[in-house]
Each structure stands twice: as structure tokens, then as C-alpha cells.
Design brief:
Layout (H helix, E strand, L loop, with lengths): L1 E2 L23 H10 L15 E6 L2 E6 L5 E3 L4 H9 L3 E4 L20 E2 L7 H7 L3 E5 H4 L3 H5 L4 E4 L8 H11 L3 H21 L1 H6 L2 E6 L4 E4 L4 H8 L17 E4 L12 E6 L8 H9 L2 H4 L2 H4 L3 E3 L2 H4 L5 H16 L4
Parallel strand pairs: 1-13, 4-5, 4-7, 5-6, 7-8, 9-12, 12-13
Antiparallel strand pairs: 2-3, 9-10, 10-11
Helix pairs in contact: 2-6, 6-7, 7-14, 9-14
Length: 340
């Protein structure tokens, strides 16, 4: 028996946009454009403007306003989500690919918010916006950091892709945005909800192992490690089956071939989602291909009816307290419906 999510999950096919390199100008030229647009380049370390502060980060040092008023996020996960839930003035951000560019569990952006698309970068557009702070995860901005820092103070942070614990990453982003107290309040609410879920389902949590699966454009993957959804399961005290540690515990996912579905036989419960990130195209077709075969039907979790679909917007694209609460709500529903 498949436990369907509370609302339909639509996987919308949309071609992935290539990185826009038309705006990749030299740093000196960008500084000139920034001045023309009324946006000064980042001040050198140790020379913070009045009321500013020095922030050290993985790519360098930035002089950041205490209360930035024109924030741009080049991260459709942590940067976008933490900024919206903290209520800071986010004027633009990269957004998610698919039917919901901004997850519905977040507060809506301001009316004048500019979505920058998924995995796109146009430096000329950023200059014209006149931001006073640019944020983004290290992988997303490190190649263009010097050019970005010529437009506005730019701060990088590590995320799950570099092994960062999501709560600490959220704290870091909140501190950079000047919203540390609000993020701590929200993290406390997450911890309280976590205790509720653990208390309500202690017997199930202690008894069953759980594997989190992702059906992508072309394959099935076991999600694990510090990737957001996997980390939430660990927060709740759920145990992974041994198959999730093959071939190496350091990997963030385990690819499963069409003929290797049987490796999931050691999982008591299977949670799955379709797509997420940039691999949303035809994820539903991948799901049909893997689950139509006899190998899937023979899995103990499938035969026992302990399989449930969850929302990729929370379990994969999520990277915020709001996303964590959405995951816990779904997990509460799933655990409550399991056959014991």
C-alpha cells in the first residue's frame, strides 16, 4: 500500500537553464558599473562603514551592514528560505526549478521581489539591482566570488554538500542577515516539534529502519548523510538500514540500478520523493520504470505496505526551519499510519 501525500505532487518538466555567462565581466568593469548604478564595491577588510561589521567566511572577509536593506541570495535553498522566514528585505534570489519556485511552507516574498531562476547568474542584472549584501553557498559562488564582491559585500557559507549540519548553516545565514535571534527562536520551535514526534512514535522509531529514496530524471538514489531530509530523519532518531552505507558512508547518495533494487530489502520503511533540485524532468517516468518491475514488488517494505511518498520541496529542496517543520509534519503522518 502506498501512502499518498496530503496534496498532489506535480512534477513539471522544464529544461534546465544553462548558466548565463553574458554578464561575466572583469572585476574592474563591474566595479565601474556598480558605481554607475549607485552600488559601491565591498570595502576592504578592517575598513567597515559606520554601523557595519566584519564577517569572515569560507571565501574571505566581507564588510556587511548591520541591517542590510537590499539582500540578494544566489542560493535557492538556504539563502532564499532563511531570508524569507526571517523577514529580512530580500529583493531577489535564485529560485527552485519546477512548479513551485518558492516553497509554499515559506512566507511569500515581497511584491517587488525578483526571481532569478534556477542555477542562473547574470552579473549585469545584479549590478542594476544595487544590492547591499549578496549571500550564497560556497559551491554556488566560489567561481565568481571576486566579481560578486565587486558589486556588493558577498558572504559564502557551507551547506550539506560540504557536510555542514543544517541547523548550524541556518544559524550562520541568520547571523549574516542580522536575524540571529529570530532564527534561534525558530530552531527552538523545531526542537519542540521534534520532541513531539519522537514521543508520539517511540515504538515505531525504535522498531523500524527507514531509507529515504529519490527518483531523479534517470535513476533511483538512496539519500543519506547531511542532505536535508536524511538529516531530519536522524534528528527524529530513525535508523538507516545497512544498504544506505554502500559503497561508501562518505557519499551523499547511493545510486540504485534497475537490477539492484533488491538492495533495499533490508529497509523496513521506504520514504520516497520525485525529482527535487535540478533533476525534476521525467522523474515520474523513472518512478514508473523502477516500481513497475517485480523486484520492487518483492521488497519487504512494499509487501508490508510501509511505503510513503513525501514532498521533495521539503525533503530535498528544503534548508530552513520552515522546511524542517514541514518534514516533521509529514513524518508524523507517515509514522502514525504504519502497520506494526
Amino acid at each position: 500500500m502506498l501512502l499518498a501525500p496530503d496534496r498532489p505532487r506535480t512534477v513539471t518538466a522544464r529544461p534546465r537553464s544553462a548558466l548565463d555567462r553574458r554578464g561575466f565581466l572583469a572585476a574592474g568593469a563591474l566595479a565601474g558599473l556598480a558605481a554607475a548604478a549607485g552600488c559601491s564595491p565591498a570595502a576592504p577588510a578592517g575598513d567597515a562603514p559606520d554601523g557595519g561589521r566584519t564577517v569572515e567566511h569560507p571565501l574571505g572577509t566581507a564588510q556587511v551592514p548591520v541591517a542590510p536593506q537590499r539582500i540578494v541570495s544566489l542560493d535557492s535553498n538556504g539563502g532564499l528560505q532563511v531570508a524569507l522566514e526571517a523577514g529580512v528585505p530580500l529583493i531577489a534570489s535564485e529560485t527552485l526549478q519546477g512548479a513551485a519556485p518558492v516553497p509554499p511552507y515559506l512566507p511569500a516574498p515581497a511584491a517587488d521581489f525578483t526571481p532569478l531562476g534556477f542555477n542562473q547568474l547574470n552579473l549585469e542584472q545584479l549590478v542594476a539591482m544595487g544590492p547591499d549584501l549578496i549571500i550564497g553557498n560556497t559551491q554556488r559562488i566560489e567561481e565568481h566570488y571576486d566579481r560578486l564582491a565587486a558589486i556588493a559585500p558577498t558572504v559564502a557559507y557551507e551547506n550539506a554538500g560540504r557536510g555542514a549540519v543544517w541547523q548550524q548553516a541556518v544559524r550562520t545565514i541568520g547571523d549574516v542577515l542580522g536575524a540571529g535571534e529570530e532564527i534561534e527562536r525558530r530552531l527552538a520551535a523545531y526542537a519542540e516539534r521534534l520532541d513531539q514526534v519522537r514521543s508520539a512514535h517511540t515504538g515505531v522509531i525504535d522498531r523500524y529502519t527507514v531509507a529515504l529514496l529519490r527518483f531523479t530524471t534517470d535513476e533511483l538514489r538512496i539519500v543519506r548523510g547531511q542532505i536535508f531530509g536524511s538529516a531530519v530523519l536522524a534528528d527524529a532518531g530513525l535508523t538507516r538500514p545497512p544498504s544506505t552505507d554502500l559503497p561508501s558512508p562518505q557519499q551523499t547518495h547511493v545510486p540504485i540500478g534497475d537490477e539492484s533494487v533488491g538492495v533495499l530489502a533490508d529497509a523496513d520503511v521506504l520514504l520516497y520523493f520525485l525529482g527535487g533540485g535540478g533533476l525534476v524532468d521525467e522523474a515520474d517516468a523513472t518512478f514508473e520504470r523502477y516500481t513497475a518491475g517485480g523486484l520492487w514488488e518483492q521488497l519487504p517494505a512494499v509487501r508490508a505496505g510501509r511505503v510513503a511518498q513525501v514532498d521533495p520541496l521539503a525533503w530535498w529542496d528544503g534548508y530552513s526551519v520552515s522546511a524542517g517543520l514541514a518534514c516533521l509534519d509529514e513524518l508524523d503522518r507517515v509514522l502514525g499510519g504504519l502497520r506494526t
